[in-house]
Design goal:
By secondary structure, the protein is an all-alpha fold. It has eight helices and no strands. Helices cover 72% and strands 0% of the residues. It starts with a helix and ends with a helix.
Length: 189
Amino acid sequence: MARHLFRRLTRRWEPFVADITGHPWVKKHAPRLADPDLWHLNRRSTARAVAIGLFAGLVPGPFQVLGSVLLSIALRANFPLAAITTLYTNPLTIVPLYVVAYEYGALFVGNADAAPVPPPDFSMSFAYLGEVASWMGQLGKPLALGVLLLSLTLALIGWCAVRVGWRCHVVAAWRKRARQRAARAQQPT
């Protein structure tokens, strides 16, 4: 049921995708945007997109979506999904993620004797973003290494989770069809 609903929703986008990929500017300057893997959800492009989105989500500042789109084009992943996946980081989650990244990096840098600077108190203002940037700058090497390692770890976990989940879904569908065939074969004609 859900699979059919999802297919109907994605088919709504087909004319939109055809308009974009058929546009003369795209054909002339960005022919790679016509690659089907950038638009269709299949096992490979979906797993790549989730991994790219999780990796690019920890990029500081407004470069998350741009980075995910560029990586998606380079690695032939579904770039709308990659861009959406970067949204796991937001003003509420970025500080805890960077604290985890700092601790992760401190394991490898060996700078565990220095006490980390506490994160700034959350507020919905532009000053908060400046405070977060200043806080990140004070954390130095452990944070830089930790962000890279955490990004790679999340990307690997996301890629594996999508591949395993997709495989489980396919196997369940195969088994369901086998049960339906067996039930039809046992019915009297």
